[in-house]
Design brief:
By secondary structure, the protein is of the alpha/beta class. The protein contains 16 helices and eleven strands. The strands form two sheets. It has a seven-stranded parallel sheet with strand order 4-3-2-1-5-6-7, sandwiched between helices. Strands 9-8-10-11 form a four-stranded mixed sheet, with helices on one face. It binds nicotinamide-adenine-dinucleotide and magnesium ion. Nicotinamide-adenine-dinucleotide (NAD) binds next to helix 1, helix 6 and helix 10.
Length: 380
Amino acid sequence: MDKIILLGSTGSIGTQTLDVCRAHNIEVTALSANSDTELLEKQAREFSPEYAVIADETLYGDLKRRLADTNVKVLAGEKGLCEIAALPKRKVVNAIVGMAGLVPTLSAIKAGNDVALANKETLVTGGKLVTDAVKRYNVKLLPIDSEHSAIFQCLQGACGNRFSKIILTASGGPFYGKTCAELINVTKEQALAHPNWNMGAKITIDSATLMNKGLEFIEAVWLFGAKPEEIEIVVQRQSIIHSAVEFEDGAVIAQLGSADMRIPIQYALTYPERSKCPAKKLSLFDVKDLTFGKPDEETFVCLAAAKRAIKKGGSAPCAVNCANEAAVRLFLNDKIRFSDIGEAVSGALEDVPFIENPTLYDLLNTQKAAEEYVSKKFSN
Ligand code: NAD
Ligand code: MG
Protein backbone atom coordinates (compact mmCIF):
# COMPACT_ATOMS: atom_id res chain seq x y z
CA MET A 1 0.00 0.00 0.00
CA ASP A 2 1.22 3.53 -0.84
CA LYS A 3 2.32 5.87 1.92
CA ILE A 4 -0.04 8.82 2.09
CA ILE A 5 0.54 12.56 2.25
CA LEU A 6 -2.74 14.12 3.38
CA LEU A 7 -3.28 17.79 2.56
CA GLY A 8 -6.27 19.25 4.44
CA SER A 9 -6.39 16.52 7.09
CA THR A 10 -8.62 18.47 9.51
CA GLY A 11 -11.54 18.95 7.10
CA SER A 12 -14.52 16.80 6.22
CA ILE A 13 -12.70 14.80 3.51
CA GLY A 14 -9.45 14.85 5.52
CA THR A 15 -10.95 13.28 8.64
CA GLN A 16 -12.83 10.69 6.58
CA THR A 17 -9.59 9.85 4.77
CA LEU A 18 -7.98 9.21 8.15
CA ASP A 19 -10.89 6.89 8.98
CA VAL A 20 -10.07 4.82 5.90
CA CYS A 21 -6.35 4.89 6.80
CA ARG A 22 -7.22 3.63 10.30
CA ALA A 23 -9.33 0.80 8.90
CA HIS A 24 -6.51 -0.38 6.61
CA ASN A 25 -3.43 0.59 8.59
CA ILE A 26 -2.31 2.90 5.81
CA GLU A 27 0.81 4.83 6.72
CA VAL A 28 0.33 8.60 6.73
CA THR A 29 3.66 10.38 6.41
CA ALA A 30 2.48 13.98 6.38
CA LEU A 31 -0.58 15.94 7.48
CA SER A 32 -1.63 19.55 6.94
CA ALA A 33 -4.25 22.05 8.02
CA ASN A 34 -4.96 25.71 7.45
CA SER A 35 -5.42 26.88 11.05
CA ASP A 36 -6.81 24.16 13.34
CA THR A 37 -3.59 23.44 15.27
CA GLU A 38 -5.48 21.63 18.02
CA LEU A 39 -6.92 18.95 15.75
CA LEU A 40 -3.70 18.76 13.71
CA GLU A 41 -1.76 18.08 16.92
CA LYS A 42 -4.21 15.34 17.89
CA GLN A 43 -3.94 13.72 14.45
CA ALA A 44 -0.14 13.96 14.50
CA ARG A 45 -0.02 12.25 17.89
CA GLU A 46 -2.21 9.43 16.59
CA PHE A 47 -0.57 8.89 13.17
CA SER A 48 3.06 9.88 13.95
CA PRO A 49 3.76 11.38 10.52
CA GLU A 50 7.21 12.66 9.53
CA TYR A 51 5.77 16.13 8.88
CA ALA A 52 2.90 18.35 9.98
CA VAL A 53 2.30 21.55 8.03
CA ILE A 54 0.26 24.56 9.07
CA ALA A 55 -0.71 26.68 6.05
CA ASP A 56 -1.31 29.83 8.10
CA GLU A 57 2.29 30.85 8.84
CA THR A 58 1.33 32.91 11.88
CA LEU A 59 0.44 29.62 13.64
CA TYR A 60 3.84 27.98 13.04
CA GLY A 61 5.01 28.74 16.59
CA ASP A 62 1.82 27.35 18.11
CA LEU A 63 2.08 24.05 16.20
CA LYS A 64 5.82 23.78 16.86
CA ARG A 65 5.18 24.17 20.60
CA ARG A 66 2.37 21.63 20.60
CA LEU A 67 4.54 18.99 18.89
CA ALA A 68 7.81 19.83 20.70
CA ASP A 69 7.95 16.48 22.53
CA THR A 70 7.44 14.44 19.30
CA ASN A 71 9.63 13.58 16.28
CA VAL A 72 7.22 15.31 13.90
CA LYS A 73 8.90 18.01 11.76
CA VAL A 74 6.82 21.17 11.58
CA LEU A 75 6.60 23.31 8.42
CA ALA A 76 4.40 26.23 7.43
CA GLY A 77 2.84 28.06 4.49
CA GLU A 78 2.40 27.12 0.85
CA LYS A 79 6.11 26.33 0.70
CA GLY A 80 5.64 23.69 3.41
CA LEU A 81 2.63 22.22 1.59
CA CYS A 82 4.64 21.97 -1.65
CA GLU A 83 7.56 20.40 0.19
CA ILE A 84 5.48 17.56 1.67
CA ALA A 85 3.54 17.08 -1.61
CA ALA A 86 6.89 16.44 -3.31
CA LEU A 87 8.21 13.82 -0.84
CA PRO A 88 9.33 10.95 -3.08
CA LYS A 89 7.20 7.88 -3.84
CA ARG A 90 4.01 8.83 -1.98
CA LYS A 91 0.38 9.17 -2.93
CA VAL A 92 -0.84 12.69 -2.24
CA VAL A 93 -4.46 13.07 -1.11
CA ASN A 94 -5.51 16.64 -1.74
CA ALA A 95 -8.44 17.50 0.55
CA ILE A 96 -7.75 21.25 0.69
CA VAL A 97 -10.70 23.51 -0.09
CA GLY A 98 -10.38 26.17 -2.78
CA MET A 99 -7.76 27.28 -5.30
CA ALA A 100 -5.18 27.08 -2.49
CA GLY A 101 -4.89 23.42 -3.53
CA LEU A 102 -3.61 24.15 -7.05
CA VAL A 103 0.08 24.86 -6.41
CA PRO A 104 0.57 21.89 -4.01
CA THR A 105 -1.14 19.61 -6.60
CA LEU A 106 1.31 20.75 -9.28
CA SER A 107 4.18 20.21 -6.86
CA ALA A 108 3.05 16.61 -6.22
CA ILE A 109 2.71 15.84 -9.92
CA LYS A 110 6.10 17.30 -10.79
CA ALA A 111 7.66 15.09 -8.12
CA GLY A 112 6.13 12.06 -9.86
CA ASN A 113 3.51 11.39 -7.18
CA ASP A 114 0.02 10.09 -7.95
CA VAL A 115 -2.69 12.40 -6.67
CA ALA A 116 -6.05 11.41 -5.17
CA LEU A 117 -7.99 14.60 -5.72
CA ALA A 118 -10.95 15.84 -3.70
CA ASN A 119 -9.94 19.48 -4.28
CA LYS A 120 -12.04 20.13 -7.39
CA GLU A 121 -10.98 23.80 -7.51
CA THR A 122 -7.53 22.55 -8.62
CA LEU A 123 -8.99 21.27 -11.89
CA VAL A 124 -11.51 24.08 -12.30
CA THR A 125 -8.86 26.78 -12.10
CA GLY A 126 -5.82 25.01 -13.55
CA GLY A 127 -7.32 22.15 -15.58
CA LYS A 128 -5.03 22.53 -18.57
CA LEU A 129 -1.83 22.99 -16.53
CA VAL A 130 -2.68 20.02 -14.32
CA THR A 131 -3.71 17.59 -17.04
CA ASP A 132 -0.67 18.55 -19.17
CA ALA A 133 1.59 17.94 -16.15
CA VAL A 134 -0.12 14.58 -15.44
CA LYS A 135 0.77 13.44 -18.98
CA ARG A 136 4.28 14.86 -18.88
CA TYR A 137 5.21 13.32 -15.52
CA ASN A 138 3.22 10.14 -16.21
CA VAL A 139 1.30 10.09 -12.91
CA LYS A 140 -2.26 9.09 -12.03
CA LEU A 141 -4.98 11.53 -11.06
CA LEU A 142 -7.57 9.60 -9.07
CA PRO A 143 -10.88 11.36 -8.42
CA ILE A 144 -12.37 11.44 -4.92
CA ASP A 145 -15.38 13.62 -5.69
CA SER A 146 -18.20 11.05 -5.53
CA GLU A 147 -19.61 11.77 -9.00
CA HIS A 148 -16.20 11.63 -10.67
CA SER A 149 -15.23 8.51 -8.75
CA ALA A 150 -18.50 7.00 -10.01
CA ILE A 151 -17.73 7.93 -13.62
CA PHE A 152 -14.16 6.64 -13.20
CA GLN A 153 -15.51 3.36 -11.81
CA CYS A 154 -18.07 3.04 -14.65
CA LEU A 155 -15.28 3.46 -17.19
CA GLN A 156 -13.12 0.68 -15.69
CA GLY A 157 -14.78 -1.97 -17.83
CA ALA A 158 -14.95 0.12 -21.00
CA CYS A 159 -12.00 -1.65 -22.69
CA GLY A 160 -11.05 1.45 -24.65
CA ASN A 161 -14.62 2.21 -25.81
CA ARG A 162 -15.30 5.91 -25.46
CA PHE A 163 -18.44 7.07 -23.68
CA SER A 164 -21.07 8.84 -25.77
CA LYS A 165 -22.35 10.76 -22.76
CA ILE A 166 -21.48 11.40 -19.13
CA ILE A 167 -24.51 11.58 -16.86
CA LEU A 168 -23.44 13.73 -13.92
CA THR A 169 -25.94 13.43 -11.10
CA ALA A 170 -26.83 16.20 -8.66
CA SER A 171 -28.81 16.08 -5.43
CA GLY A 172 -30.33 19.47 -6.26
CA GLY A 173 -29.37 20.75 -2.79
CA PRO A 174 -31.69 22.14 -0.11
CA PHE A 175 -33.45 24.61 -2.45
CA TYR A 176 -34.44 22.33 -5.32
CA GLY A 177 -37.74 23.49 -6.84
CA LYS A 178 -37.56 27.00 -5.35
CA THR A 179 -37.92 30.17 -7.43
CA CYS A 180 -35.51 33.13 -7.65
CA ALA A 181 -37.82 35.22 -5.47
CA GLU A 182 -37.87 32.54 -2.78
CA LEU A 183 -34.08 32.36 -2.76
CA ILE A 184 -33.22 36.04 -2.23
CA ASN A 185 -33.35 35.99 1.52
CA VAL A 186 -32.61 32.41 2.50
CA THR A 187 -30.48 32.29 5.63
CA LYS A 188 -27.04 30.86 6.18
CA GLU A 189 -28.55 28.15 8.40
CA GLN A 190 -31.00 27.08 5.66
CA ALA A 191 -28.20 27.05 3.08
CA LEU A 192 -25.95 25.01 5.37
CA ALA A 193 -28.54 22.23 5.84
CA HIS A 194 -27.78 19.80 3.01
CA PRO A 195 -30.36 17.00 2.64
CA ASN A 196 -27.95 14.10 1.96
CA TRP A 197 -24.30 14.96 2.67
CA ASN A 198 -22.40 16.30 5.67
CA MET A 199 -19.55 18.41 4.28
CA GLY A 200 -17.37 21.48 4.83
CA ALA A 201 -19.12 24.89 4.86
CA LYS A 202 -17.88 26.12 1.46
CA ILE A 203 -18.97 23.06 -0.54
CA THR A 204 -22.29 22.99 1.35
CA ILE A 205 -23.05 26.54 0.17
CA ASP A 206 -21.85 25.56 -3.32
CA SER A 207 -24.35 22.70 -3.23
CA ALA A 208 -27.15 25.09 -2.30
CA THR A 209 -26.33 27.50 -5.17
CA LEU A 210 -25.58 24.57 -7.55
CA MET A 211 -22.14 26.17 -8.12
CA ASN A 212 -20.85 22.81 -6.90
CA LYS A 213 -22.42 21.13 -9.94
CA GLY A 214 -20.95 23.81 -12.16
CA LEU A 215 -17.49 23.15 -10.69
CA GLU A 216 -18.04 19.41 -11.12
CA PHE A 217 -19.11 19.91 -14.74
CA ILE A 218 -15.75 21.60 -15.40
CA GLU A 219 -13.92 18.97 -13.33
CA ALA A 220 -15.46 16.23 -15.54
CA VAL A 221 -14.33 17.99 -18.72
CA TRP A 222 -10.71 17.84 -17.55
CA LEU A 223 -10.71 14.45 -15.84
CA PHE A 224 -12.36 12.54 -18.66
CA GLY A 225 -11.46 14.65 -21.71
CA ALA A 226 -15.16 15.29 -22.30
CA LYS A 227 -16.62 18.09 -24.42
CA PRO A 228 -19.11 20.22 -22.48
CA GLU A 229 -21.93 19.07 -24.79
CA GLU A 230 -21.18 15.44 -23.85
CA ILE A 231 -22.07 16.02 -20.18
CA GLU A 232 -25.68 15.93 -19.01
CA ILE A 233 -26.63 16.95 -15.49
CA VAL A 234 -29.49 14.98 -13.95
CA VAL A 235 -31.00 15.77 -10.57
CA GLN A 236 -31.14 12.52 -8.57
CA ARG A 237 -32.64 13.70 -5.31
CA GLN A 238 -31.72 10.69 -3.19
CA SER A 239 -27.95 10.69 -3.99
CA ILE A 240 -28.00 6.93 -4.56
CA ILE A 241 -26.86 6.96 -8.20
CA HIS A 242 -23.57 8.82 -7.97
CA SER A 243 -23.25 9.24 -11.77
CA ALA A 244 -23.33 7.17 -14.95
CA VAL A 245 -21.89 6.87 -18.44
CA GLU A 246 -23.70 6.08 -21.66
CA PHE A 247 -22.02 4.24 -24.53
CA GLU A 248 -22.65 4.40 -28.28
CA ASP A 249 -24.94 1.34 -28.23
CA GLY A 250 -27.24 2.94 -25.65
CA ALA A 251 -26.00 0.93 -22.66
CA VAL A 252 -25.86 3.05 -19.50
CA ILE A 253 -23.53 2.00 -16.68
CA ALA A 254 -24.13 3.65 -13.31
CA GLN A 255 -22.47 3.46 -9.90
CA LEU A 256 -24.70 3.26 -6.83
CA GLY A 257 -23.91 3.27 -3.14
CA SER A 258 -24.77 4.86 0.17
CA ALA A 259 -24.00 8.57 0.44
CA ASP A 260 -20.71 8.10 2.29
CA MET A 261 -17.52 9.72 0.98
CA ARG A 262 -15.39 6.98 2.50
CA ILE A 263 -16.29 4.72 -0.46
CA PRO A 264 -14.81 7.01 -3.17
CA ILE A 265 -11.95 8.02 -0.83
CA GLN A 266 -11.02 4.39 -0.24
CA TYR A 267 -11.25 3.53 -3.94
CA ALA A 268 -8.78 6.34 -4.73
CA LEU A 269 -6.43 5.07 -2.00
CA THR A 270 -6.55 1.38 -2.83
CA TYR A 271 -7.16 1.57 -6.63
CA PRO A 272 -7.40 -0.76 -8.45
CA GLU A 273 -7.97 -3.04 -5.43
CA ARG A 274 -11.27 -3.13 -3.57
CA SER A 275 -11.58 -4.12 0.05
CA LYS A 276 -13.96 -3.81 2.99
CA CYS A 277 -14.88 -0.20 3.74
CA PRO A 278 -16.08 1.43 6.99
CA ALA A 279 -19.09 2.89 5.10
CA LYS A 280 -22.57 1.35 5.38
CA LYS A 281 -23.52 -0.88 2.45
CA LEU A 282 -26.53 0.03 0.33
CA SER A 283 -29.64 -2.12 0.46
CA LEU A 284 -31.82 -1.46 -2.58
CA PHE A 285 -34.83 -2.51 -0.48
CA ASP A 286 -34.26 0.58 1.69
CA VAL A 287 -34.38 2.85 -1.37
CA LYS A 288 -38.02 3.81 -1.65
CA ASP A 289 -37.80 6.18 -4.61
CA LEU A 290 -35.28 7.01 -7.28
CA THR A 291 -36.33 10.25 -8.96
CA PHE A 292 -34.80 12.20 -11.83
CA GLY A 293 -35.17 15.80 -12.92
CA LYS A 294 -33.57 18.66 -14.81
CA PRO A 295 -31.62 21.38 -13.00
CA ASP A 296 -33.17 24.87 -13.20
CA GLU A 297 -30.36 27.01 -14.63
CA GLU A 298 -32.49 30.16 -14.69
CA THR A 299 -32.85 30.10 -10.92
CA PHE A 300 -29.45 28.60 -10.16
CA VAL A 301 -27.40 31.04 -12.23
CA CYS A 302 -24.06 29.84 -10.83
CA LEU A 303 -24.48 26.57 -12.73
CA ALA A 304 -25.24 28.39 -15.96
CA ALA A 305 -22.25 30.71 -15.49
CA ALA A 306 -19.85 27.81 -14.80
CA LYS A 307 -21.01 26.09 -18.00
CA ARG A 308 -20.53 29.29 -19.99
CA ALA A 309 -17.07 29.65 -18.44
CA ILE A 310 -15.78 26.24 -19.55
CA LYS A 311 -17.19 26.80 -23.04
CA LYS A 312 -15.30 30.11 -23.16
CA GLY A 313 -12.16 28.37 -21.88
CA GLY A 314 -8.86 30.04 -20.93
CA SER A 315 -8.95 31.86 -17.62
CA ALA A 316 -12.78 32.04 -17.49
CA PRO A 317 -13.32 28.98 -15.19
CA CYS A 318 -10.67 30.37 -12.83
CA ALA A 319 -12.45 33.74 -12.74
CA VAL A 320 -15.87 32.28 -11.88
CA ASN A 321 -14.34 29.92 -9.32
CA CYS A 322 -12.47 32.67 -7.50
CA ALA A 323 -15.44 35.05 -7.58
CA ASN A 324 -17.46 32.24 -6.03
CA GLU A 325 -14.87 31.58 -3.31
CA ALA A 326 -14.83 35.28 -2.41
CA ALA A 327 -18.62 35.60 -2.48
CA VAL A 328 -19.16 32.47 -0.37
CA ARG A 329 -16.75 33.86 2.25
CA LEU A 330 -18.79 37.09 2.36
CA PHE A 331 -22.07 35.15 2.62
CA LEU A 332 -20.71 32.98 5.46
CA ASN A 333 -19.67 36.20 7.25
CA ASP A 334 -23.21 37.63 6.86
CA LYS A 335 -21.99 40.39 4.52
CA ILE A 336 -24.09 39.56 1.43
CA ARG A 337 -27.35 37.79 0.57
CA PHE A 338 -27.59 34.29 -0.85
CA SER A 339 -28.64 35.54 -4.29
CA ASP A 340 -25.63 37.89 -4.43
CA ILE A 341 -23.37 34.85 -4.87
CA GLY A 342 -24.90 34.15 -8.29
CA GLU A 343 -24.55 37.79 -9.30
CA ALA A 344 -20.87 37.79 -8.32
CA VAL A 345 -20.16 34.61 -10.29
CA SER A 346 -22.06 35.70 -13.42
CA GLY A 347 -20.59 39.21 -13.25
CA ALA A 348 -17.00 37.94 -12.92
CA LEU A 349 -17.35 36.11 -16.22
CA GLU A 350 -17.93 39.45 -17.97
CA ASP A 351 -15.72 41.70 -15.84
CA VAL A 352 -12.52 39.84 -14.96
CA PRO A 353 -9.94 40.23 -17.79
CA PHE A 354 -9.86 37.14 -20.02
CA ILE A 355 -6.63 35.30 -20.89
CA GLU A 356 -6.71 32.68 -23.63
CA ASN A 357 -3.78 30.45 -22.58
CA PRO A 358 -3.08 31.30 -18.94
CA THR A 359 0.15 30.37 -17.20
CA LEU A 360 0.15 29.71 -13.45
CA TYR A 361 1.17 33.35 -12.95
CA ASP A 362 -1.81 34.48 -15.06
CA LEU A 363 -4.18 32.29 -13.04
CA LEU A 364 -2.94 33.77 -9.76
CA ASN A 365 -3.53 37.24 -11.23
CA THR A 366 -7.00 36.18 -12.35
CA GLN A 367 -7.67 35.05 -8.77
CA LYS A 368 -6.64 38.50 -7.51
CA ALA A 369 -8.75 40.26 -10.14
CA ALA A 370 -11.82 38.15 -9.29
CA GLU A 371 -11.41 38.83 -5.56
CA GLU A 372 -11.09 42.56 -6.22
CA TYR A 373 -14.15 42.49 -8.48
CA VAL A 374 -16.24 40.86 -5.74
CA SER A 375 -15.02 43.09 -2.94
CA LYS A 376 -15.69 46.23 -5.03
CA LYS A 377 -19.14 44.99 -6.06
CA PHE A 378 -20.27 44.63 -2.45
CA SER A 379 -18.23 47.39 -0.84
CA ASN A 380 -21.16 49.62 0.14
P1 NAD B 1 -13.33 21.51 4.77
O1 NAD B 1 -13.53 22.97 4.85
O2 NAD B 1 -14.07 20.62 5.69
O3 NAD B 1 -11.77 21.17 4.91
C1 NAD B 1 -10.80 21.88 4.18
C2 NAD B 1 -9.39 21.49 4.61
O4 NAD B 1 -8.48 22.32 3.89
C3 NAD B 1 -9.11 21.72 6.09
O5 NAD B 1 -8.20 20.76 6.56
C4 NAD B 1 -8.44 23.10 6.12
O6 NAD B 1 -7.59 23.25 7.21
C5 NAD B 1 -7.68 23.09 4.82
N1 NAD B 1 -7.51 24.43 4.23
C6 NAD B 1 -8.46 25.40 4.12
N2 NAD B 1 -7.94 26.49 3.54
C7 NAD B 1 -6.65 26.22 3.27
C8 NAD B 1 -5.59 26.97 2.69
N3 NAD B 1 -5.76 28.22 2.27
N4 NAD B 1 -4.38 26.37 2.56
C9 NAD B 1 -4.20 25.11 3.00
N5 NAD B 1 -5.16 24.36 3.58
C10 NAD B 1 -6.37 24.91 3.71
O7 NAD B 1 -13.65 21.10 3.25
P2 NAD B 1 -14.12 19.68 2.70
O8 NAD B 1 -15.60 19.64 2.71
O9 NAD B 1 -13.36 18.59 3.31
O10 NAD B 1 -13.71 19.82 1.15
C11 NAD B 1 -12.38 19.70 0.72
C12 NAD B 1 -12.37 19.60 -0.82
O11 NAD B 1 -13.03 18.39 -1.20
C13 NAD B 1 -13.14 20.73 -1.51
O12 NAD B 1 -12.51 21.05 -2.71
C14 NAD B 1 -14.50 20.12 -1.79
O13 NAD B 1 -15.14 20.70 -2.89
C15 NAD B 1 -14.12 18.67 -2.08
N6 NAD B 1 -15.18 17.70 -1.81
C16 NAD B 1 -15.69 17.58 -0.55
C17 NAD B 1 -16.70 16.65 -0.30
C18 NAD B 1 -17.25 16.45 1.09
O14 NAD B 1 -18.07 15.55 1.28
N7 NAD B 1 -16.85 17.22 2.07
C19 NAD B 1 -17.18 15.87 -1.35
C20 NAD B 1 -16.64 16.00 -2.60
C21 NAD B 1 -15.63 16.92 -2.84
MG1 MG C 1 -19.46 15.80 -5.69
